[in-house]
Specification:
Layout lengths: L7 E6 L2 E6 L8 E6 L2 E2 L1 E8 L2 E7 L7
Antiparallel strand pairs: 1-2, 2-3, 3-4, 5-6
């Protein structure tokens, strides 16, 4: 279900902010995340038995 709270996660902390919907309005996963204010480009989500993995890239290096 698109609006089932178990499918909706709000992430906020350690410089990471955003929303993850495992099942969006049209059935696809929706990921909207920023890291230190930089939006992640083309994030993808994979849900496995071990948990959720999100892969994405950003414009600048996040290493310190």
């Amino acid at each position: 279900m698109a609006f089932d709270s178990a499918n909706h996660f709000v992430v906020n902390g350690a410089g990471i902010e955003g929303v993850i919907d495992i099942t969006g309005l049209y059935g696809d996963a929706v990921v909207s995340l920023t890291v230190d204010g930089e939006a992640l480009r083309a994030p993808s989500l994979e849900s496995t038995r071990q948990g959720i993995t999100i892969r994405a890239s950003c414009r600048r290096s996040l290493t310190t």
